[in-house]
Amino acid sequence: MIHVAVLGYGTVGSGVVEVIETNKKDIEKRAAARLNIKYILDLRDFPGDPYESKVVHDYNVILNDPEVTVICETMGGVHPAYEFSRQALLAGKSVCTSNKELVASHGPELISIAREKHCNYLFEASVGGGIPIIRPLNYSLTAEKIDSITGILNGTTNYILTKMDKEGADFEEVLKEAQEKGYAEKNPEADVEGYDACRKIAILSSLMCSKNVRYEEIYTEGITKISAADFVYAKQMNKSIKLLAMSRDKKEGFFAMVAPFMISRTHPLYSVNDVFNAVYVHGNMLGDSMYYGRGAGKLPTASAVVSDVVDCARHPGKTVMCFWENEDVKVADIESDQGKFFVRVKSGQKEEALAAFGSLAEINVGIAEEFAFMTQVMTEKEFNDRIEKIGGCINRIRILSA
Amino acid sequence: MIHVAVLGYGTVGSGVVEVIETNKKDIEKRAAARLNIKYILDLRDFPGDPYESKVVHDYNVILNDPEVTVICETMGGVHPAYEFSRQALLAGKSVCTSNKELVASHGPELISIAREKHCNYLFEASVGGGIPIIRPLNYSLTAEKIDSITGILNGTTNYILTKMDKEGADFEEVLKEAQEKGYAEKNPEADVEGYDACRKIAILSSLMCSKNVRYEEIYTEGITKISAADFVYAKQMNKSIKLLAMSRDKKEGFFAMVAPFMISRTHPLYSVNDVFNAVYVHGNMLGDSMYYGRGAGKLPTASAVVSDVVDCARHPGKTVMCFWENEDVKVADIESDQGKFFVRVKSGQKEEALAAFGSLAEINVGIAEEFAFMTQVMTEKEFNDRIEKIGGCINRIRILSA
Q: CA Rg, chain B, in Å?
């Protein structure tokens, strides 16, 4: 019998209980053990809830119970989740988490404690919700040298951009609707500014490098400047606009970025719409592969947490494979990264733009006051210098190379 | 040090050697052991090949060498691959295979021997080439009850259908071109008649059920009757035509089928083109997820075989999780399966068709001699009875429900 404690009885935490209840027979077969939810830690009481009697308010009850060997940390936030996870691991209890902030900020330390204490710190649910991506990276692509990861990692922004694309609506309008429907938070900053996607690509990049990619060093740009007009141009070019989180292991250095990109209709990520997420991985032997599914939501995320519980149950006293050392990766300055750009300037800037950018491809959708074009490949620095020279632009969006 | 033997130095076998050579450092780190390719079994000699000295012609050399603990079976075909694999497992040597015919026909027996002998029979490369799908099903979706799998599992037919869609060409024409380019075999029957996809969906279905789905019981229809005209209609309906391999665990029974389907532009499988493959999985908690990548090819397939070698290396003396019991699943008669159909009849049959099918949706693309329509949902039996009543049809294609 594996005794499990759930920290935080909110959306994901109650989902963990529901997943275990609903699929108990199958899960126990795969875990090769019976599962018992012994405690649920929450500040609140839940009168009338079938698990009411499991609720405790003092974490020490869980920590000091030697029967509890697996803890599901579904609290979110860095504190006190960090302290709780650390204490649990030091006591030899495995921790399965959906907490991307904590994994991105303290992952290598917690993984290293787990290794010392012969238990596990697992985080399948921290990226891509229900999409199995951590385990494929750790257990499946073991014969590969992964050199690039490109992800649609935030459901809220993908929902907003999909709506803008389909309905020709503007950002503020769609955001308001998404908030009313509960698809976006009242304070949507973490999503629309790309901070959430940044944490997630930091985690994936760290696994790709087997070292620590600090999320603070990843250039991050949100979607608040994307307008209905940008989508008119995108359509004309057979493209859409997606918020991409990416990292690239190149000869010139290790690059990572979160930013809106123009993406071609033929790219598999083009069809990833609404709240769905996807991770596109390139390895030196297998080429491109993609993992697609629900990036968030109570049950998909909880299912990923429970799959970690099964992994813990099957490996008592053993740390499963995860390479993420506490040594920082040198993230290259984005200024030296290269690509093409889509640019909109005022029609009065046309001559200057032609002079500054030389060879460019005009995109005409009949907006009289504007001159829009696609540049050649150049570094971010070269691009910024030229834009500065012509006195700025209305907007510019990077273009994903195929 | 793990000593490995490779059986068959053809495309995949030489790929295994190349993958291990190219990514040796990373692979050995993940395997937590050094790897040595000790023998290569082949009928031929390979003078001048860097691995010339490893080539042996007698399997007993490998079988009787206690140092060899992992065998890569990349021979293909059922015999003598079956005898070789069985002998290896009985001797406690793990086998990693790319051989879908053998896995589909003798999987449960070989898995059960591996379990008795505390070694492994692993087959990540047998389905979807470089797409990690076996390990995600076995290790990742452990909190799920999977109720449906829909796959594009054959690269040759997907290449042909993609070409037909894009170029408006007919089947025979594209097949010939594919044969000239080496994308289709001289005898293309296994691919174009759906036999290859049938073996692969039998394997995935067996893992979904944890029991044995006999490939002989899966209704299998190829793509040889699909014509350029069918794609004209498909386009009119915003659809394409794909060879799908699917299984469904329904209240009415367990259904499995390989057949061409009309598929909507909004479905993620719609964008899986050329030689790419994808597996679309529905679980009761996480909903839809998809796994996409190269379904064949030397290095992607070899990379999957080597990922199995790593798994063996990390679990010496231990059988990793795989539920596929030697108990046959009752596959329901396709006659009771339900769906919508796209149908083309001669224009003279229009009145009869209207009478026989009642409510239907006409599809008009301006082919004067034909009357084409989409039916309501009905069973295969109901459909066949009605078609028989009106004296047959020019063609009919099932429609994938969204």
A: 23
List Cα–Cα distances, A163 to A4, A174, A274, in angstroms.
40, 7, 8
> Average pLDDT of chain B?
97
In this structure, what token pair is assigned to residue B34? 């050094």
Cβ–Cβ gap A285/B311 under 8 Å: no
Query: B259: which 2 tokens?
Result: 């057949």
Q: Across-strand partners of A346?
A: A370
ipTM topping 0.90: yes
Chain B closest-CA separation from residue A29 CA (Å): 9
CB B113 within 8 A of CB B89: yes
Among A76, A292, A1, residue whose Cα is nearest residue B272: A292
| Per-residue tokens: B373 | 């329509």
Answer whether B86's CB lies under 8 Å from B115's CB: no
Ordered by where they begin, the domains of chain A are 2-129+298-314 (3.40.50.720), 136-294 (3.30.360.10), 337-399 (3.30.70.1150)
Does the pTM of the predicted model rise above 0.95?
Answer: yes
pLDDT in tens, B196-223: 999 999 999 999 999 999 999 999 999 9
The pLDDT score that the predictor gives to residue B54 is 98
Helix or strand or coil: residue B178?
Answer: helix
Q: Is A350 annotated as catalytic?
A: no
Calpha distance A123→A119 (Å, rounded): 13
Backbone angles phi, psi at B218, to 5 degrees: -90, 120
Q: Out of A143, A291, A300, whose CB is closest to B287? A: A300
- Per residue in A120-167, pLDDT (tens digit) is 999 999 999 889 999 999 999 999 999 999 999 999 999 999 999 999
Cβ–Cβ < 8 Å for B268, B290: yes
Give whole-number Cα distances, B360 to B354, B372, B376, B392, in Å: 7, 10, 6, 17
Q: Which of A38, A117, A200, A340 is catalytic?
A: A200
